[in-house]
Every structure is written in structure tokens, then in C-alpha cells.
Amino acid sequence: MTTVLTVLVAIAMLATLGVVIAGVLGMSGGEGGSRRSNVLMRWRIGLQFTAVALFAILMMLLRQ
């Protein structure tokens, strides 16, 4: 179970990093506008919450 959670945490963290990089590249290129930035921000927040929640669950399981 902890191995699965570890992999899920890593995937969520990499997905969050990907969205952050996409947002930075979009802002530096000046294309896409504010609508795309807002969508990427929402995705980042959701993925970041998921990563933190999975990490907290993993830590609780490893504590026992």
C-alpha cells in the first residue's frame, strides 16, 4: 500500500510541476491570455492539494 501511495505522490508532484512549467512558459510567451492562465492555476491548485493529501496519508501510514 505504501508503495502505491509513494508512486501516486510522485505522479501528482510531477503533474503539478508540469502545470507550473506550462504556466510560466505561457506567461513568458505572451500567448493564450488570461483564460489559459486561470485554467492552469486551477489545475495547479487541484494537483497540489492532491499531492499534499496523498503525502499526508502516506505519512500517517508510515507512522504506525
UniProtKB/TrEMBL annotation:
UniProt keyword list: Membrane, Transmembrane, Transmembrane helix
Transmembrane segments: 46-62
InterPro entries for this protein: Hypoxia_induced_domain
Domain of life per record: Bacteria
Domain HIG1 per the UniProt entry, residue ranges: 1-64
Protein name as annotated: HIG1 domain-containing protein
Species of provenance: Neoroseomonas alkaliterrae
